[in-house]
Amino acid sequence: EVQLVESGGGLVKPGGSLRLSCAASGFTFSSYSIHWVRQAPGKGLQWVSSFSTSAYIFYADSVRGRFTISRDNAKNSLYLQMNSLRAEDTAVYYCARGGAKYGDDHLYVYWGQGTLVTVSS
Amino acid sequence: DIVLTQSPGTLSLSPGERATLSCRASQSVTSSYLAWYQQKPGQPPRLLIYGASNRATGIPDRFTGSGSGTDFTLTISRLEPDDFAVYYCQQYVNSPPWTFGQGTKVEVK
Questions:
Q1: What is the DSSP letter of A113?
Q2: HSE-CB for B62 with a 13 A CA cutoff
Q3: Please, are residues A114 and A36 in contact by the beta-carbon 8 Å criterion?
Q4: Which chain A residues touch B90 with a CB distance below 8 Å?
Q5: Mean pLDDT by 10 residues, chain B (109 residues)
Q6: Measured between alpha carbons, how far is B18 from B15 in angstroms, rounded to an integer?
Q7: Nearest-by-Cβ selection for A106 from B39, B88, B98
Q8: What is the DSSP letter of B16?
Q9: Are B13 and B19 within 8 A, CB to CB?
Q10: Which of B93, B88, B89 is nearest to B31 (CA)?
């Protein structure tokens, strides 16, 4: 069974930092693109960052230069280092796995339960 | 960037009725790389449809996706109590940013 479990969320002051983790199991982690998608309270879904199997990394404009995505295939884990946090970064952050077929890297087939990040003074 | 516009914002229907949700893209979605997700309160999204018209594993056949180019539709043939939720479309063409529509809420009338 595919499982994605996020951790590391919490309350942080504006300008602060936080590191999110996503622990994966039930599939060959190194064979799939993994992504972060967020959802502000009461709002829609927003793609944040992706780490492909070929080590291509992508960021949304709103987080580029502040967030850093990384993965450790030996530990089956994905990370998101978030610096210079702003109030507008407040959201539930989901880890999601891409599809298996060519072209489906950014099809979010499996999702974790999410971890809440609150940026407030 | 590909902007996805969903309509209506809210759909008020009764169980057993048919629901038709629209997703319009600001430019053509190549290879029909268009997906639909269902989200219930307090839960992560669940993939329903990929490739515009393919049901994901375990999705009942009352959910049908259709469309191509810039116009896509999700149809729920007969609403069941479990189907009242928010639905999002998403394009996953091979270049960033990968975007979602703003969502359509299907609520009980």
A1: -
A2: 13
A3: no
A4: 45, 108
A5: 96 98 95 94 97 96 96 97 98 92 97
A6: 9
A7: B98
A8: T
A9: yes
A10: B93
| Tokens representing residue A116 in the block | 């809440």
Least Cα separation, residue B92 to chain A (angstroms): 5
Give me the DSSP letters along A2-38. -EEEEE--EEE-TT--EEEEEEEESS-GGGS-EEEEE
Residue type, A98: G
**What pLDDT is recorded for position B85?**
98
A44 is written with which tokens? 């829609």
B52 forms beta bridges with none
Q: Going by C-beta distance under 8 Å and a sequence separation of 6 or more, which residues neighbour residue A108? A: A35, A37, A96, A97, A98, B35, B37, B45, B47, B90
C-alpha of B38 from chain center: 7
Tokens of B50: 């990929």
For residues B18-44, one letter each, b for 16 or more C-beta atoms within 10 angstroms of the residue's C-beta and e for the rest, the string is ebebbbbbeeebeebbbbbbbbeeeeb
pLDDT digits (tens, 9 = 90+) for A37-63: 999 999 999 999 999 988 899 999 999
Residue B30 pLDDT:
86
Compute the distance between CA of residue A94 and CA of residue A46 in angstroms, rounded to an integer: 10
- In the numeric block, the tokens 């979602």 are attached to B100
Comparing CB atoms, the residue among B31, B94, B100 nearest residue A45 is B100
Residues of chain B with C-beta less than 8 angstroms from the C-beta of A22? none
